[in-house]
UniProtKB/TrEMBL annotation:
Gene: folD
Gene Ontology terms describing biological process: L-histidine biosynthetic process; methionine biosynthetic process; purine nucleotide biosynthetic process; tetrahydrofolate interconversion
Top-rank taxon, per record: Bacteria
Function: Catalyzes the oxidation of 5,10-methylenetetrahydrofolate to 5,10-methenyltetrahydrofolate and then the hydrolysis of 5,10-methenyltetrahydrofolate to 10-formyltetrahydrofolate.
Keyword NADP part of the UniProt annotation: yes
GO cellular component annotations of the record: cytosol
Keywords: Amino-acid biosynthesis, Histidine biosynthesis, Hydrolase, Methionine biosynthesis, Multifunctional enzyme, NADP, One-carbon metabolism, Oxidoreductase, Purine biosynthesis
Name under which the protein is recorded: Bifunctional protein FolD
Amino acid sequence: MSAKIIDGKAFAANVRAQVAAHVARLKEVNGLTPGLAVVLVGEDPASQVYVKNKGIQTREVGMNSYEHKLSAETSEADLLALIAKLNADPAVHGILVQLPLPKHLDSDLVINSIDPAKDVDGFHISNVGLLGTGQKAMVPCTPLGCLMMLRDHLGSLSGLNAVVVGRSNIVGKPMAQLLLGDSCTVTIAHSRTKDLAEVCRRADILVAAVGRPEMIPGDWVKPGATVIDVGINRIERDGKGKLVGDVHFESAVAVAGAITPVPGGVGPMTIACLLANTLTACCRAHGLAEPEGLTA
Ligand SMILES: NC(=O)C1=CN([C@@H]2O[C@H](COP(=O)(O)OP(=O)(O)OC[C@H]3O[C@@H](n4cnc5c(N)ncnc54)[C@H](OP(=O)(O)O)[C@@H]3O)[C@@H](O)[C@H]2O)C=CC1
Ligand SMILES: Nc1nc(=O)c2c([nH]1)NC[C@@H]1CN(c3ccc(C(=O)N[C@@H](CCC(=O)O)C(=O)O)cc3)C=[N+]21
């Protein structure tokens, strides 16, 4: 038996179509156009590609995209001044500061200077606290995309054993909160976890967010489990550059019930959820009904 492949690319196209339809209505009925500002500091090539893709997809769904590219030497004061300006700009409903930032900048300070209502990444401490207490928040895009795919595939997640490998603030921890919110029994594993293989084998839902190419082999996967591979790792194979996840796909696909591929799994959903969050932020800012099915 081979696992069902969860097509994140197709799923994301569907989410973007829903966002586009809602944006068109907002324009027609309310005369509003949601706007997303993306701030990139430095010249990291991978980040430049992501930011460019975000800009293209933002315009495709009918939103305004504002791109701010700053030099790697930008001072903290200048970056904070730009964020203050974006916070005060009524045309900007969402603000994303691409991470990681250059080392001389304090990313916690920078993120916490974003207006929480415009924090479409869901990284501000207010949004982290709201999510952790089950209140209405802006939810981080990558975990939100994973949750949408899990609900679509499994229906109810209630009572299932979920294991999240990775405890970062941007993926692992918020993912665990969302799974807990859907009544999973949640285990968060990390680099100090004892017998990770055994922990993973208990998972009905296994989420890998580690950043180590193909580290989770098929024999760590419970037969029939749903595997969500968040990892994006660029490797060299047969003299060619290749993108692989944190899960060893070929061996896991033979055991799992369903699995997301890399590329074409979680990645496209992350950008689709960023657009969904920007739409949600715009609706909330204007006291309008929120899009259904696009929030946690
Ligand atoms: N698809 C998408 O849209 C996105 C993909 N990513 C990708 O997801 C991956 C994770 O990203 P991110 O969360 O930012 O990464 P971080 O480096 O911030 O966190 C990695 C986590 O993995 C844990 N870890 C490291 N080595 C091991 C190990 N041998 N065994 C068990 N756990 C381990 C670390 O544990 P400890 O805390 O103990 O150090 C840490 O908690 C990356 O490949 C990244 O590129 C990220 C964001 C979005
Ligand atoms: N403030 C902030 N928010 C983020 O959400 C954020 C960030 N910083 N920094 C970097 C990570 C990484 N990330 C990805 C988004 C899309 C793909 C994606 O679309 N991947 C495609 C492949 C793209 C390719 O070919 O390179 C896929 O998996 O199919 C991947 C990774 C968002 N991140």
